[in-house]
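A student in our group prepared the protein record below, which I am reviewing. Here is the record exactly as it was handed to me.
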Amino acid sequence: MPDPIPDKETLEFYRQQSPLSSPGRHSAVLETLPTDPAELCRVIQGFLVHQFWVMDEANYGISPGSLKADGRDLNAEINLRSIEVMLDAVFKLDESPLDASRVPARRLVGNCRDYSLFVTSVLRIHGIPARVRSGVARYFYPDDVRLEDHYVCEFWNSDTNRWQMVDAQIDERQRQVLGCTLDTTDLPRDQFLVGVEAYHELNDGRVTEEKIGIGEFTGWPYVWYTLFTDLACVCGCEILPWEGWGVVDRISSDTLSEGDRRLLGQIVEVLNDLESPGGIARARELFTTDPDLVLPADYRPYFHRLSAFT
């Protein structure tokens, strides 16, 4: 069944670059890239490599040690926030055209959010409404009920009148290791659950607390955080997976006040209602007016460090 057709204002909002998705001085480069999801994913996989997948040298023939020996500051790479700055780093590593696949040792180290933001940026520059979504994926553990923290891109497919989800991270190596047989350029809706769907999965008892999240960050604290990150992403603030402010500073289950819980309930409501007429406008109003959601003027992103990269 086709999704409700978004209003013109919503489609126009998602055609516009955000401060983080904007390629800035590299706009002309992205204009040359394909919009076909499969082709675009192959291009992005040719200049990005995921931070966790470099931990095992068997994956791409590289390791944190080999990259650091080459002079790379890997923790700095994974904390790059905007497409413009990431592209600066991509071309510093290798000056080849962006659609020329680099050897793994010359690819920028990033994460699932970065892959999704690149897809979003390219589609937007071609006038295709697109957005980053934060949530959980089933396909990292196909034989288990675990739901793994993840980000994908969602774009409006005007031919089929629906939001189509694309996971640009899953290349052939990852597909082989995971045993993944899905079309990751057109994910089934039950294989990636956006933030509010992750909330309902836990709230309704379809998954246990230890089976949703990432590493030791699981259960309700993780789900509350994912509601925040997905709201931020759909409102055009595509933050890194460890960023936050306001209510996020109190997101553990034992420190949330009643006011915090009411706010998180409001986030659930607006995300539940996202695709209805005016839904995006209501989500944006909440995100840009509530004191515990508004991006502080003096905000400085947390610098995330992986011990293997130090």
